[in-house]
Write a structure and sequence with these properties.
Elements lengths: L9 H13 L26 H18 L5 E6 L7 E4 L9 H13 L2 H11 L14 H16 L5 H12 L2 E2 L4 E2 L13 E4 L6 H9 L5 H16 L10 E4 L6 E5 L11 H18 L2 H17 L22 H17 L3 H18 L30 E2 H19 L2
Antiparallel strand pairs: 1-2, 1-8, 3-4, 5-6, 6-7
Helix pairs in contact: 1-12, 1-13, 2-13, 3-4, 3-5, 3-13, 4-5, 5-6, 7-8, 9-10, 9-11, 11-12, 11-13
């Protein structure tokens, strides 16, 4: 979610904003084990934030005419299709909150009451989800919707709903392990004990928010413990991550390191790295603990070293025959949003500029003819990969790709207008 960006020094903010205003956004070449240096490339046209937002609004205008059943939400658009496939707002459906979250961001970017009204209508239909304790996805389901409604829409009455949601999420914390249990064993029987996935890093934001807004102080401790344990166990020596860890529920010992959505158990799944970059940047913002900033930087630099020329990753960096493999625009959107925030948190001005340039280059690529849904479908973005090993959501439009894309635009817009 888009929290107020905290800069220690206003001069740093000015530097970042000026970089955005004048940046040339050609994509750098990729060298394994070497970070991109975007400034080395020949300049192209600067990224037009206003035009990108205009396209998003145009796409949403089409969507609201077609997506009218309040008991469902848009989830994906299949390859070569134009309209959103809608799925029920079920208690086990982790993507329920992204569409209302998108509407809140469009309200924030446009100031139009129309989008606020749409967002309210779409948010309030699943208030009862605040008591979900069966999985960790309550964070993804509630915070983009109710959190953005509180912060961007001024809906202070959402506070108690968010606090209840945080308590539900915290109920899955195992102090013997030091993490929140992500999935139930009934739904994921391959694993018999305590399951934690890298995606869970983003749900910690709900706990941090709740701790700051009158919730149990224990929420903060749980979030920090989860981040520290994940940092210790979920990442390899090269700062790439596993997807799924199974812990002994009683001792906290790591039993297995696996994947469900990556190419293989030991492969470098792109969206897993994206969750890490975004997650640890957010945790540093909330804690000010330098270990999390240092870790976010290390994950980021590794990720940047693996990217292809257009800054949009293959769905897994270790999948065979990479030039023929599908991309994952959702990972690029998540990283772009995370890097915009991370660029405001680092002290070194050269690093600030590197990360901001990388983020804007990602957004320019996502907004290009190759990846934009404009004129082809009702989505903002095309070419995301949700779960190729499971045989679904392969080279499609995904609602969470659109969510993190518009969040990145909102964050970037705030930086440029604060100059």
């Amino acid at each position: 979610m888009n929290q107020p960006i905290k800069n220690r020094d206003i001069l740093q903010l000015l530097l970042v904003a000026c970089t955005v205003a004048s940046i040339s956004c050609s994509s750098p070449s990729k060298e394994e084990k070497n970070s991109h240096n975007i400034s080395d490339n020949s300049p192209n046209e600067a990224f037009d934030i206003a035009e990108a937002v205009k396209v998003c609004e145009m796409q949403l205008e089409k969507t609201i005419q077609k997506v009218t059943d309040l008991s469902k939400h848009p989830r994906l658009i299949e390859t070569d299709q134009q309209e959103w496939k809608q799925v029920p707002n079920g208690r086990l459906v982790w993507t329920s909150g992204f569409y209302p979250g998108i509407l809140w961001y469009m309200y924030d970017l446009s100031g139009k009451e129309k989008w606020k009204n749409e967002a309210i209508k779409r948010t309030e239909v699943f208030e009862s989800f605040k008591t979900i304790t069966a999985h960790h996805d309550i964070g993804f389901m509630m915070f983009p919707a109710y959190g953005n409604g509180y912060e961007l829409g001024g809906k202070k009455e959402y506070k108690d709903i968010l606090l209840t949601s945080a308590a539900s999420l915290a109920s899955r914390y195992n102090p013997e392990v030091g993490t929140i249990k992500s999935w139930s064993n009934e739904m994921h029987p391959r694993w018999k004990q305590h399951i934690t996935i890298i995606d869970n890093m983003l749900n910690l934001e709900l706990l941090f928010w709740a701790a700051k807004h009158g919730g149990d102080a224990r929420f903060y401790e749980i979030a920090v413990n989860h981040a520290e344990t994940t940092m210790k166990n979920h990442f390899r020596e090269d700062y790439t991550s596993w997807h799924v860890l199974e812990y002994d529920s009683l001792t906290g010992e790591v039993l297995h390191r696996h994947t469900k959505q990556g190419y293989g158990d030991d492969s470098r799944w792109a969206r897993g790295l994206a969750w890490g970059i975004y997650g640890y940047s957010m945790v540093y913002r909330e804690t000010g603990d330098k270990q999390f900033l240092d870790f976010a930087i290390k994950i980021t630099d590794k990720y940047l070293s693996l990217l292809p020329d257009d800054m949009v990753p293959y769905w897994d960096f270790d999948a065979p025959n990479l030039p023929q493999q599908e991309r994952d625009a959702s990972a690029a959107a998540i990283v772009a949003s995370g890097l915009i925030e991370l660029s405001t948190l680092v002290d070194d001005q050269n690093v600030q500029q590197k990360y901001m340039e990388a983020a804007v280059a990602m957004l320019q690529s996502l907004s290009s003819e190759k990846y934009s849904g404009n004129g082809k479908s009702d989505s903002f973005l095309l070419h995301s990969t949700g779960a190729k090993p499971l045989g679904h959501e392969i080279d499609v439009a995904l609602i969470y790709a659109d969510y993190y894309y518009i969040e990145a635009l909102d964050r970037l817009s705030k930086l440029t207008t604060s100059r």
